């Protein structure tokens, strides 16, 4: 090949490789609402890389813990008196429309696998399932053990009385008596137990 063809072609090829490697979102995780798409909706688990779906609302920090390129857990850090009672203004997972529709009028069990965070570890944490204007489960408190344990509660998700879809959230926060506290979450599981009782 002639030099006047080879060098421009090599330059174009090198630029194409650099551009492909630098494309935005190439290695970005698909984070957003929690969905049950592709499942039978009986059990939906959020773990591993799906933990990136947690949003740090309010004045809370979320720190994704990675190992070998994959998310293993998320650490929630909150200072005393910095969060209100509304679930959507606390660290939370937003549930997609498919789960909102399936869970409306159903009894569900929520299981959170958690432990105290590595620094300023909380001795307890709280969980709240919110169905928007239709109501919420209230903050359910659990005392933490030193290592990962599964903590569960059941709740009857109300029927939708408003034609528009509500926005469902699962909020999780450490109990913070003073200064700041952390809780580490390894997984969250939603089990649909049947119609509300």
UniProtKB/TrEMBL annotation:
Signal peptide (residue range): 1-21
Top-level taxon: Bacteria
Alphabetically ordered keywords of this record: Signal
Name the record gives this protein: Uncharacterized protein
């Amino acid at each position: 090949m002639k030099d006047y063809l080879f060098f421009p072609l090599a330059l174009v090829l090198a630029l194409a490789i650099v551009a492909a490697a630098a494309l935005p979102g190439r290695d970005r995780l698909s984070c957003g609402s929690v969905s049950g798409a592709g499942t039978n909706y009986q059990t939906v688990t959020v773990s591993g890389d799906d933990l990136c779906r947690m949003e740090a609302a309010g004045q809370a920090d979320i720190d994704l813990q990675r190992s070998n390129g994959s998310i293993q857990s998320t650490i929630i850090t909150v200072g005393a008196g910095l969060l209100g009672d509304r679930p959507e203004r606390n660290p939370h997972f937003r549930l997609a429309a498919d789960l909102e529709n399936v869970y409306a009028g159903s009894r569900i069990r929520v299981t959170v696998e958690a432990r105290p965070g590595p620094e300023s570890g909380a001795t307890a944490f709280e969980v709240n399932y919110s169905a928007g204007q239709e109501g919420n489960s209230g903050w359910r408190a659990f005392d933490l053990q030193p290592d990962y344990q599964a903590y569960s509660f059941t709740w009857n998700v109300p029927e939708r009385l408003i034609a528009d879809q509500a926005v469902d959230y699962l909020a999780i926060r450490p109990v913070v008596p003073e200064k700041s506290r952390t809780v580490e979450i390894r997984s969250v599981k939603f089990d649909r137990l049947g119609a509300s009782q």
